[in-house]
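Q: Can someone sanity-check these two? First one:
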Amino acid sequence: MRKLENAELDRKSVEEFRESEKTPIIIVLDNVRSLHNVGSVFRTADAFLVEAVYLCGITGCPPNKEIQKTALGATESVSWKHYPSALDAVMELKAANYRLVAIEQAEHSVLLDEFVPKTKEKIAIVFGNEVKGVEQAVVSACDGVIEIPQLGTKHSLNISVSAGIVIWDLFCKLKG
């Protein structure tokens, strides 16, 4: 078995990415402090042809060298917008008929492996601040909450890890 060279990977150009049919997911980052986490989310969004990333509140925005360090150019391919608050973004997405889901630990949450979206359903997933999580007002405005099952002693995952897990799971379920 031989490891492939980068030139053999048949990656899309930025223009090809922009013209490609997108996975109907929008990622909403609610006051995410770490610019490295923001960059990592962009990179994951690029990998799975996610429609857009919405950066809310204090979440850093491109161009930024710390975001770029982990995004590796994904800020050029993935569409993004900034909103003063995640609640502003959620209200706009609701009006555009997205199913809004917070990624959080909450009453009546659905475990990720039990969450079943409709094929091609438009979904917006909200990830929160590294310490405080998704703001309660935003959780309350969402249509539901997805929780990532965790079996160890810790009660949280890094946001970039959570984003990777959830986006991959939804990508697989939505492509039907």
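And here is the second, same format, sequence then tokens:
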Amino acid sequence: MKIICIGRNYADHIDELDNVRPDEPVIFIKPDTAIAQSNLPFFIPEFSNEVHHEVEVLVRINRIGKHIQTKFAHKYYDQIGLGIDFTARDVQQQLKSKGLPWEKAKAFDGSAFVGKWFDKSALGDLGKLLFSLHKNDVVVQEADTSLMLWSIDEIIAYVSQYFTLKIGDILFTGTPAGVSQVNKNDRLEGYLNGQKALSLIVK
């Protein structure tokens, strides 16, 4: 099982980090060891002084696929969820300034929190999914999937040109604006179409 993440898929997030808008999806991968235990807190790693939350809509792949056409991509998943891509922003900036890969900032142990899964048929139009992240009862990130530069099906088609998708693979589809630092004892709660999809404490 692998975790495939899409960066820079929301224009407002690109702007808030002063990044260049890409011509095609930005892909990076997290190992399975990045998945956080859902019944445990998220522990801020000792090597970073600035870890940010990035809430994202998730897709779980349910069949093997390679070179998938966009029009057939919907057949490769039946569950949608919500998760958090925890990012060591200070480490990432150091790596980017040297032209180095992001793995130490993005793929460390526990950096991928996966919340509850929902049957996609119960969520309505997947192109207009509303999702949000609340930090200590304050909404810090909020968007809907119509704001994606590349839709879920377009992401699946694109990624499958490079990597064979396998059953159980998880796609993180990008984060909107509002990312910010997490601190000890912060409480994070995520909602997908008004339904609570994740909850965790930061330690």
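A (reply): Looked at the second one. The chain has a mean pLDDT of 95. The two ends are 27 Å apart (CA to CA).
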